[in-house]
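[Discussion] Sanity-checking designs against the backbone

I'm trying to build intuition for which residues belong where. Below is a C-alpha cell string of 114 positions. I'd appreciate it if someone posts a full sequence so I can compare it with mine line by line.
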C-alpha cells in the first residue's frame, strides 16, 4: 500500500534575504513534489529556491536540478527525484532594483509518496 504525506515547511512566512527551510526526513519516500504558494511579493522581487539533499540532516549540498524562480503571487510546483535521506530548500529573496532586499510572504509544502 502506498503512503503519502504533505509537510508544511513554511506557513504565512515573510522571507527576505537568504533563507533555508527546516530539513525533512524523506528516506521512506520514492516521490517528492515541492509547492511554493506566494501570497504577496514586493514589486521587482524574485524568490530563487534551490533543493538541497543530505545523508544525515546536518551536511547539505545542492541537488542537480536547476533553481526555481518565483516573481509573482500564485502557486508553483516541481518534482525532485533520486534524493537521499533528507530534503530542504535554500534560497534568496532579492529585489535587484532596490537598495534593500525585497520581501515575499509564502507557504512552502513538501508532498511525499512512498
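Best answer:
Here's mine. Compare freely.
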Amino acid at each position: 500500500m502506498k503512503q503519502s504525506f504533505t509537510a508544511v515547511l513554511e506557513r504565512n512566512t515573510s522571507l527576505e534575504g537568504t533563507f533555508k527551510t527546516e530539513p525533512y526526513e524523506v528516506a521512506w519516500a520514492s516521490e517528492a513534489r515541492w509547492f511554493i504558494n506566494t501570497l504577496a511579493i514586493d514589486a521587482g522581487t524574485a524568490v530563487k529556491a534551490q533543493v538541497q539533499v543530505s545523508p544525515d540532516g546536518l551536511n547539505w549540498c545542492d541537488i542537480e536540478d536547476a533553481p526555481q524562480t518565483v516573481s509573482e503571487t500564485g502557486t508553483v510546483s516541481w518534482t525532485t527525484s533520486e534524493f537521499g535521506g533528507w530534503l530542504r530548500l535554500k534560497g534568496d529573496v532579492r529585489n535587484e532594483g532596490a537598495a534593500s532586499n525585497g520581501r515575499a510572504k509564502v507557504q512552502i509544502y513538501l508532498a511525499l509518496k512512498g
